Amino acid sequence: MHELSIALDVCRIAEEHVGAGALARVTAVGLDVGARAGIEIDNLEFCLEALLGSAPFGSGKPVINRLEGAELSVTYVEVEDDGGS
Amino acid sequence: MAVRRIDVREKVMAKNDELAAAVRGRLSEQGVPSLNLVSSPGSGKTTLLERTLDQLGARLTMAVITGDVQTQNDAERLAARTDRLVQAVVTGGACHMDARQISTALDEIDLEETDLLFVENVGNLVCPASWDLGEDAKVVIFSVTEGEDKPLKYPRMFERSDYCVINKVDLLPYLPFDVDQAVAYAREVNPQLRFFFTSALTGEGMDGWYEFLLDLAGAIREITA
Lengths: 85, 225
Fold this sequence. Notes:
Chain A is of the alpha+beta class. Chain A has helices at about 5-20, 40-50, and strands at about 25-35, 60-65, 70-80. Chain A has 2 helices and 3 strands; from the N terminus they run H-E-H-E-E. A 3-stranded mixed beta sheet of chain A has the order 2-1-3, covered by helices on one side. Chain B has 8 helices and 8 strands.
């Protein structure tokens, strides 16, 4: 039920690492999610697809690595280079 | 176009955990023990607090932060029972309270003049288990109008709680609820759980709860004195 809050926190972390100006160029956000993290993983994925696929993001996708345990972390963010720099 | 991968390795909710740690530090500095009351909707959290404020109000200065998705009804009910400020957090749709809300609410509470802090969380047996608010312990209220197997269905909440109040025991004669079975299920999930058996409505079984609260407030005050 709280997966949207978690997904928003994932977006905040992504923004911290790539900067607000680059969100539209985020292609993927990698996560480790444990089976005992208290998260319904399909629901989290659904929320992240919605958030990463719309403004201020562009067409980002969540890439969820399912683990045992209670892990819940963002492992990487992939960004398309803007070409100009 | 090239894709660049940025390594992150950051725990989700680390921000909440940081804020919760700050809340915990603030409360312990002021010697204020804190309990986070969690349960499904309608288990009697507010009634338990109403009676507690009535009965212990002369001996303990208690502050309350209530959380609800909408309305300040609970805060208004509780404000009628105490002279102290009852802080209402309206989560506006969110299914849980977070540490930032507690931190903000604490700004309005005179902690030096507080013996005990209650947080009455949003009625929900799932989400509040995942948010550390900086409290000393979670108390899960489990009413006998629910199924005995609630602890098995919502194990995380029972795992994360230190205390379990089995409430509405005045209704036991009218219900098929098996108390021993409920306790056994709860212990299966969390063998350390400490139980209270109460009717917050009639007052039955509340003495053990009051003693526990007085001990909690007293013990911490002795340490800081």
